[in-house]
Design brief:
disordered C terminus, 7-stranded antiparallel sheet, alpha/beta, binds nicotinamide-adenine-dinucleotide, globular, flavoprotein, single chain, pyruvate, 26% strand, 499 residues, FAD/NAD(P)-binding domain, Enolase-like, domain 1, NAD(P)H dehydrogenase (quinone) activity, binds flavin-adenine dinucleotide, FAD/NAD-bd_sf, 7-stranded mixed sheet
Length: 499
């Protein structure tokens, strides 16, 4: 838009927010010949969070941190890494813009959208105003970081969100991370690897609270061995700024403690980005947690308006935003059979080093649901078919699969290993298509690869060694190096691991 003028356009489909799902939907509909308007509030955000301030830059930084050699100066290495990552995101942002801009049917409008009514949105850019009307509207405005209401925190000069850190070229000396979820632990591991001193304050009594204890112990062990101070059960009470650093006051079990920091990363979750959209004017309902309310086809309370990605309160992952787009596209162009209800075995990876990947049920959750569970697991260092981790010089971690002993179907997996972000996709696919564990174990995999550990854990030889004598557990091979068991339903033990 140029000049202080007010224009009005009409489209078949209006998409608000240029993230993964929004971009894919705009492209899909545009290629089908629909007239699409994509509204994005910032020219620095074409492509959305993932490519500009999320997955891509952070994983690139993890790589840069990992390849720093002991003799490299931490500050200049970090400075150059931020520069290289900025170049990468600039290139990716441009490509994302081109992908839509080169379609004759799609117009990208840069400005902030807010609803005027159920079919019209106003887009503001400086003094300019544009109205866009459409029969179908898709909201994909993502999420924003939550900064908890802790005395002194919001006004602290040392406070940073993940986005701020990605634009900071000075390596923190002591980074205090509040929140030990995906974001907090990835940043903690990355900055420690760059050379910062790092402490993580987590409100929950333990880290990796949703994982089995044996899995959590291995992840926590790796992070602690890396030199990260992990403080669970921490209640942050106050932040007191000084002239060169700040003091983070917290309590553990009621006992007051302090940490000094020159940067505080807030990693306490992200909230749906609905501010300023004026959803009420369109009659769009939100949930108690502030997300846009949707049904399983991602329709809002106004059936011609859809909400996809982080803004609808679902799991906050790029590939979920992408899959949300498939569900809406299926409804608009296909037979409408896709829905969130048909999603099975969605994998996740936390990009620490080595990466930690999960899918499906933990052993504990599987037992709670009444499955007759058997587990197959090994420390990576103690497995034989882990040539690839050995070649890569990193044998830290654990491979654990949770199997239904009655059906031989895989119920879940937790993989902490080099390449786990790839291997988990294979396990997830097997789960989705009901491939039995024995087939996963007897498949042909390339060599040397990390996947071939599945041959060792689930293949014929392992199964033969795992015969369970009638009547119970005696005789089951369960040494520190391997476990393969069909425990009794109430047996919560899951194998003796040590890092
Ligand atoms: C640091 C970090 C690391 C992450 N790492 C991973 C990872 O490794 N793997 C993974 O799967 N997920 C990761 N995520 C999560 C992932 O980035 C998000 O789940 C995903 O990007 C959400 O996509 P989306 O399509 O919902 O919205 P977004 O990609 O956030 O896009 C929303 C867009 O809408 C725009 N917008 C907002 N309001 C308006 C408005 N009123 N008008 C116009 N435009 C508007 C925004 O500017 C933005 O560009 C990470 C997130 C962060 C913060
Ligand atoms: N690899 C990935 O896929 C990846 C990476 C980064 C982020 N993400 C996504 O981004 C989203 C945001 O990540 P996140 O880690 O900020 O959120 P999160 O919800 O995953 O974790 C927040 C953590 O902060 C803790 N917490 C909350 N308030 C606290 C307080 N006052 N003091 C101390 N601890 C507190 C919570 O107990 C929780 O462990 C996630 O939902 C995740 O899906 C994904």
């Amino acid at each position: 838009m140029s000049g202080a003028e007010r224009l009005g356009i009409t489209a078949d489909v209006l998409v608000i927010g240029f993230g993964k799902g929004g971009k894919d939907l705009a492209g899909t509909m545009g290629r089908e010949g629909r007239r699409v308007v994509m509204v994005e509030q910032s020219d620095q955000m074409y492509g959305g969070t993932c490519v500009n301030i999320g997955c891509v830059p952070t994983k690139a930084l993890v790589h840069h941190a990992d390849v720093r050699r002991p003799g490299d100066d931490p500050q200049s290495w970090y400075h150059d890494a931020i520069g290289a990552v900025t170049d990468l995101t600039t290139m990716t942002r441009g490509r994302n813009f081109e992908m839509l801009d080169t379609l004759d049917t799609v117009a990208v409008v840069t400005g902030r959208a807010s609803f005027l009514d159920a079919t019209t949105v106003e887009v503001a850019a400086g003094d300019d105003r544009l109205t866009v009307s459409a029969a179908t509207i898709v909201i994909s405005t993502g999420s924003v970081p939550v900064v908890p209401d802790i005395r002194g925190l919001r006004d602290s000069a040392y406070l940073a969100t993940s986005t701020d850190l990605l634009h900071t070229k000075e390596l923190p000396r002591h980074l205090v991370v509040i929140g030990g979820g995906y974001l907090g632990l990835e940043f903690a591991a990355m900055y420690r690897q760059f050379g910062s001193e790092v402490s993580v304050l987590e409100a929950f009594p333990g880290f990796m609270g949703r994982e089995d204890d044996d899995v959590a112990d291995v992840v926590v062990g790796i992070l602690r061995d890396q030199g990260i101070t992990l403080i669970p059960d921490a209640k942050v009470t106050e932040v007191r700024d000084g002239s060169v650093d700040t003091t983070v006051c917290y309590e553990v079990g009621g006992r007051p403690r302090t940490l000094r920091a020159d940067k505080i990363l807030v990693a306490t979750g992200r909230a749906p980005a609905v501010e300023g959209l004026h959803l009420g004017r369109a009659g769009i309902r939100t949930t108690e947690r502030g997300a846009i309310e949707v049904d399983e086809h991602l329709r809002t309370s106004r059936p011609h308006i859809y909400a996809i990605g982080d803004v609808n309160g679902g799991p906050q992952f790029t590939y979920i935003s992408q899959d949300d787009h498939r569900i809406v596209a299926d409804l608009l162009l296909g037979d409408g059979t896709r829905s969130t209800a048909d999603r099975r075995a969605v994998p996740h990876t936390m990009f620490i080093t080595p990466p930690f990947s999960t899918v499906g049920l933990t052993e504990t959750a599987a037992r709670e649901r009444g499955h007759n569970v058997r587990t197959a697991g090994k420390l990576v260092a103690r497995a034989t078919a882990t040539h690839r981790p050995r070649i890569m010089g990193d044998t830290r971690g654990l491979i654990k699969l949770v199997i239904d002993a009655d059906t031989d179907l895989v119920l879940g997996a937790a993989l902490i290993s080099i390449d786990s972000q790839e291997v988990i996709n294979l396990v997830a696919l097997a789960m989705r298509h009901d491939v039995p564990a024995r087939e996963l174990g007897n498949s042909i995999y390339t060599h040397p690869s990390t996947t071939e550990v599945l041959n060792e854990l689930l293949g014929t030889v392992a199964r033969a060694g795992a015969q369970v004598p009638a009547g119970g557990r005696p005789g089951i091979a369960r040494s520190p190096s391997t476990y393969w068991a069909r425990p009794k339903p109430n047996d919560q033990s899951s194998g003796p691991f040590s890092v």
